[in-house]
Design a protein that fits this description.
32% strand; 14 helices; 830 residues; ten-stranded mixed β-sheet; binds beta-D-glucopyranose; 22% helix; alpha+beta
Length: 830
């Protein structure tokens, strides 16, 4: 038996995270047994065992919360022992280390005054090389810490993006290896970010969390002779950095040779939000890519093609004479063979380097770009592509899912969805990474959450997003803003409450429950669900009480091409989603044993259901709102009194249109509600509008609109055309859940017992799907062979599959490998 993936709050060996209410999880593999019969958890401080569950049959590998009273800045070891039902046993150990928790800081907030993009600096001596050292630190806008000239860690864009007025995320770095006996130097580079910069598509709007750049830090270096503690204070100095300008949308301007000014750091009042240990995994350069080719465009431009729409930046070798200005501009598309940034709106998305003549590596610090193409200006010709490296930046999340099929276009679609997730999971799930937006739009996150949890282990990532959402909800009586974190458009006041967007408060927690099965997460997020449900319940005029986006970007109003809200009635959507969120709240309350809340939520759900049926179904059960999305929602939420009638209507609407017309809210569930044959037809269709139309036009990520580009590869005239917008990538949940057949079940979440109901199709030929579930690896495969249709499933330890084969056979499949061969012509296979 082998035990792996030991995690606390879904983080491996966390250092300095918020670990209140720690939940422990692990994965068992390589066992002769099929399930855990009993287990034991022990937590140690040094050699003292401070908590022992004893040998128990009730410890859940998906999440066991222990009532620990943790001390700040303390490393704990923990050990898990598991016994299988056949008597074999395994043991593994890991650690977690707390951050500052509630403890007072030695350091104080300091700033370089009015100066922007400066470096805060402190020199100090150590009598000996420390045995261990930590820095607790944060800074606003964004910061990077260097110790004796080396980066303190490989994290970027620290401290991350969140509702800074409610809490400021603190990072903890292990810097022992960077300190030395004698003279040492700490440098905190400050820059841009969103705390005082523009962060909204409305040119004048920005966050106003903190009017100046600032930082707070506390170094603790321990050696045999004792502990050295150094906090930020007025003994620190500031100096100008080579960064002349820095902002998220416009990028950066560097002038390395410029004259340095310096002065004494000033103590400053703290930003509004209190300091709290972080919740989410770091943002890092997770991958590097070399350019695919260098292009000379018809306009005579020199353009690097990265071969992939990616998010991050370029690192490049500078060799340019002093005084030369090098400029890089980042764009997603070539139009008529030439560089284009037509879809970036007001974002400049550039990097400028005014050379001091020294050859070195250059890269931006406090911005990111969404791009495939880079326009180079000022570089010596011929440019050597080898001098450039694409740095792919993303929250560090394990990629848990993969699908390969016998269909090339489909494989590219799967890749595109993953790339759009990589590009938009930067501490916050953002709508897009390139134009003047890049915000945590709740609707986009909600429709994509299911897919996201197949693709990557998102438990801790979404935990932080939901924590920020909760902070925002508390400011707004339970209402959910359009974007989380929210602070923009102060001049216009609060903006939120949109149907399908605000419902992220209920949908995301439930999705995490389905995929990860950890009650601790659900318990933490139940307040989000409840508060949102009550906000909606208190607003009978919800459809008119705020701005709604409806079935955003649907194609069912061809007569009004500029209209972005689809044709499905907003009142219909409001009733559907009010019902859906109330239902999810009721389920969550039942799981957590809150009967009063469950009863309240069920009652509300019942009211919405009858209102919807009364207003939108004829006495004969005919749906009166005749759009594809209306049918899909009514079917998926089981609101249609006569589902077969509604399904027929859906098929008719699809047939009449010849294609899908759904927007953000209808698309995620469309294929699941269509008969298999029709679902595959839409999936594999290559003409506009469809997923593979994008692929056919060379897309390497998911587009915002079905027609973001026209056939000639130029941006359509619709405006608002991100080429890296994951919402329509929500189709991948269908690929995992239906084509490959792997679906979590609400009664047995976390894949404890899951559905395996693959839907093979000859046009796809074969599929190989891998999913690293919280219980271990699940593999689902099917393939058309000469002898028949072969299917196989591998079920991990502690899990079982409720299988339904294409021939209608049902079975319960336990851990291990299962193979089936069905004769060609099996009913249900077509
Ligand atoms: C964003 C979306 C978002 C929408 C809301 C857009 O500007 O990019 O993805 O959900 O606004 O209407």
């Amino acid at each position: 038996m082998q035990i792996s993936h030991l995690s606390v709050n879904h983080l491996r060996s966390p250092l300095g995270y918020d670990l209140r209410e720690p939940s422990f999880s692990w994965i068992v593999g390589e066992s002769v047994s099929e399930r855990q019969e009993k287990a034991r958890l022990q937590v140690f401080l040094g050699s003292d065992c401070i908590y022992d569950t004893g040998i128990s049959a009730s410890l859940d590998s998906l999440g066991t919360e222990l009532p620990l009273r943790l001390q700040p800045r303390t490393r704990y070891r923990w050990q898990v022992t598991v016994w299988g039902e056949k008597g074999d046993c395994g043991e593994a150990e890991s650690f977690f280390e707390t951050g500052k928790m509630e403890e007072a800081w030695v350091g104080q907030w300091i700033s370089p005054g009015e100066r922007r993009n400066a470096v805060l600096e402190k020199r100090f001596t150590l009598a000996e090389v420390p045995e261990s050292a930590r820095i607790y630190i944060t800074g606003l806008g964004l910061y990077r810490l260097f110790v004796n000239g080396s980066p303190a860690s490989d994290e970027v864009l620290t401290p991350g993006l969140n509702a800074y007025d409610r809490w400021v995320q603190v990072q903890t770095f292990d810097v022992g290896r960077l300190l030395q006996k004698g003279e040492n130097k700490l440098e905190i580079w400050l820059g841009g970010g969103i705390s005082r910069g523009r962060f909204s598509f409305t040119a004048s709007d920005g966050y106003e969390y903190c009017p100046y750049d600032c930082a707070i830090a506390e170094l603790r270096a321990v050696s045999a002779g004792g502990e050295t503690v150094i906090g930020t204070d007025e003994s620190w100095r500031w100096r100008t950095s080579p960064i002349v300008e820095s902002s998220i949308y416009n990028g950066e301007v560097w002038e390395p040779g410029r004259e340095t000014e310096s002065g004494e750091a000033l103590a400053c009042s703290p930003p509004v939000g209190p300091l709290r240990d972080r919740l989410s995994p770091p943002v890092k350069v997770v991958m590097e890519r070399k350019p695919l080719r260098l292009i000379r465009t018809p306009r005579g431009e020199t353009v690097l093609d990265m071969g992939q729409n990616m998010v991050g930046w370029l690192r490049f070798r500078v060799h340019a004479p002093r005084g030369r200005t090098l400029k890089l501009q980042f764009g997603e598309q070539l139009e008529n063979g030439c560089f284009s940034r037509a879809n970036l709106r007001t974002a400049q998305a550039a990097f400028t380097w005014r050379s001091d003549g020294v050859s070195r590596l250059a890269e931006p610090f406090f911005t990111w770009y969404g791009f495939r193409y880079v326009l180079l200006e000022g570089f010596d010709e011929p440019v050597d592509p080898e001098d450039f490296t694409g740095c792919v930046v993303c929250s560090e999340l394990e990629e848990t899912g993969s699908i390969t099929t016998g269909h090339k276009g489909l494989n590219r679609l799967v890749e595109n969805v993953l790339w759009s997730q990589r590009g938009n999971f930067l501490d916050v799930p953002t709508d897009c990474p390139q134009r003047d937006e890049r915000e945590g739009w709740t609707g986009d996150a909600q429709v994509f959450a299911d897919t996201a949890c197949y693709n990557m282990d998102c438990a801790s990532f979404f935990t932080k997003y939901m924590a920020d959402m909760w902070e925002e909800q508390q400011k707004a009586d339970g209402c959910v803003p359009y974007v989380v974190p929210f602070a923009r458009n102060r001049s216009r006041g609060f903006e939120g409450g949109a149907v399908g967007w605000g419902d992220a408060a209920a949908v995301i927690p439930w999705t995490l429950w389905l995929h990860y099965g950890d009650k601790t997460l659900l318990k933490r997020q139940l307040p989000n669900m409840q508060a949102w449900m009550e906000w909606v319940a208190a607003r009978p005029d919800w459809p008119t009480a705020c701005r709604h986006f409806g079935d955003w970007l649907a194609l069912d109003r061809p007569e009004e091409p500029a209209e972005r809200v689809g044709k499905t009635d907003v009142s219909f959507l409001c009733l559907c989603y009010a019902y859906y969120s109330a239902e999810l709240s009721a389920h969550a309350a039942l799981v957590l044993g809150d009967r009063t809340l469950a009863h309240r939520a069920q009652t509300l759900a019942g009211v919405y259901q009858s209102r919807l049926r009364e207003a939108y179904f004829s006495p004969k059960g005919e749906l009166l709102c005749q759009t594809q999305t209306a049918c899909v929602l009514a079917l998926h939420l089981r609101l249609a009194p006569d589902p077969e009638k509604t399904r027929k209507l859906l098929c008719r609407l699809v047939r009449e249109a010849g294609h899908l017309t759904t927007g953000f809210l209808g698309t995620p569930w469309l294929l699941a509600e269509l008969p298999k044959e029709e679902a595959y037809r839409l999936l594999l269709r290559e003409e506009y509008p469809s997923w593979l139309y994008e692929v056919k036009l060379g897309a390497t990520t998911i587009w915002e609109r079905w027609n973001s580009l026209t056939e000639d590869g130029c941006f359509s005239e619709t405006g608002m055309n991100s080429l890296n917008h994951y919402a329509y990538g929500s189709v991948a949940a269908w690929l995992y859940g239906y084509m490959c057949g792997l679906r979590p079940l609400a009664e047995t979440p976390g894949f404890r017992r899951f559905r395996w109901e693959p839907q093979p199709d000859t046009r796809v030929g074969f599929i190989q799907c891998r999913l690293r579930s919280p219980l271990g690896e699940i593999r689902s495969e099917w393939r058309y062979e000469e002898t028949g249709l072969s299917l196989s499933l591998s079920v991990p330890f502690g899990s079982e599959a409720q299988a339904r084969l294409p021939d209608g056979r049902e079975a319960l499949l336990g851990p291990g490998e299962h193979r089936f061969l069905l004769p060609i012509g099996t009913p249900g296979k077509e």
